[in-house]
Amino acid sequence: MSMDHKSYIDHFQLLDIKQISFDRPMHFIIYEKQDVFFLCYVQKHSIRLIMGEAEKDLKEGEVVFGQNEKIPVKICGSDSQCFVVRLSGNKLKYIFEFCSLSGSVESSRDQGIKYYIYNQKNEGLFLQSLFEQLFREKGNYYNNDMTSSILKCIIHMIIRPIQETRNVSENEIVECAKQYLWEHYNEDITLTDVAEAVSVSTFHLSHLFKKETGSPPIQYLIQCRMEKAKELLRDKKIPITQIALRVGYDSPNYFSTVFKKMEGISPAEYRKGFKY
């Protein structure tokens, strides 16, 4: 079974595109804001991608697709040229979940950077022509079907090799879903969110998850929340109302009801009986 990334690239906004020429040693900040995605295509010679203390050299014809979570990203070059495209869109983050299953995403996790590098020499000229065409259309960002189509084509090209070469096992899908639930347990997430993160239907995910773990995904989410709640309850300084919010419940009363159902005692009783 192959995973499908196509629905993820239908929901984005093109922020801008620049053609950067480094006629002397210099650097260009790709962006300063968090949670902005970027594409950088090396048109001439080579550049260096700098992400805090982490650095990555990119050769002519290579494309990096990245996401920043914490710090600014900049590129450095000398006698080189590149295109830089900045995008926003919540669903684009799922591409990294998709790529991670294949081991294709590199990251500097301490710095909060995820990136995927694509290099297919036989498609280099076509890929360059797409960036050039996108740059020519840069004055028509909004409501422009052409720019949208070009961007979708670029992202399809750089992700397609993973789609074609990687079959993902049922166990890997479930493990990825479990990882997603642990990373987002304190958010208002739905089964649809989890299914999109691992690129399968909600029905298929529910079937696989119950087959592998014995419980549905949302039940596992509750278990994640309760485990984190028990950890927080061991600290008497944190009010129970605050713990409820931290583990994803707006209502402290509902949190207490769920906790008692899962653990057999109330949060207050758990805290009182815990041996410090």
Task: Describe this protein with a few key phrases.
Jelly Rolls; 276 residues; 10 helices; four-stranded antiparallel sheet; 2 domains; 24% strand; Arc Repressor Mutant, subunit A; six-stranded antiparallel sheet; alpha+beta; 10 strands
Explain what you see.
The protein is an alpha+beta fold and 276 residues long. It folds into 2 domains: 6-165, Sandwich (Jelly Rolls); 169-276, Homeodomain-like (Arc Repressor Mutant, subunit A), CATH 1.10.10.60. 43% of the residues lie in helices and 24% in strands. The protein has helices spanning 93-101, 124-136, 145-165, 170-183, 191-198, 202-213, 217-233, 240-246, 252-263, 267-273, and strands at 13-22, 26-31, 37-44, 46-51, 54-59, 63-68, 73-77, 80-88, 106-108, 113-118. Helix 2 (124-136) runs antiparallel to helix 3 (145-165), helix 4 packs across helix 5 (191-198) and helix 4 crosses helix 7 (217-233). It is elongated, with a radius of gyration of 22 Å. The termini are far apart.
Spatial separation of the terminal alpha carbons: 49 Å
Number of strands: 10
- Determine the structural class based on helices, strands and strand pairing: alpha+beta
The ordered H/E elements are EEEEEEEEHEEHHHHHHHHH
Instruction: Calculate Rg over CA atoms.
Output: 22 Å
Portion of residues within helices = 40-55%
Query: What's the overall average pLDDT, rounded?
Result: 80
CATH structural architecture of the largest domain: Sandwich
CATH class of the largest domain: Mainly Beta
User: In the CATH scheme, what's the topology name of the largest domain?
Assistant: Jelly Rolls
How many separate helices?
A: 10
Described by strand count, sense and barrel closure, the largest sheet is: 6 strands, antiparallel
- State which percent range the strand residues make up: 15-25%
Low-confidence stretches: 1-7
Q: How many domains would you count in the coordinates? A: 2
Fourth-level CATH superfamily of the largest domain = Regulatory protein AraC
Which strand order does the major sheet show?
1-8-3-6-10-9
Shape: elongated
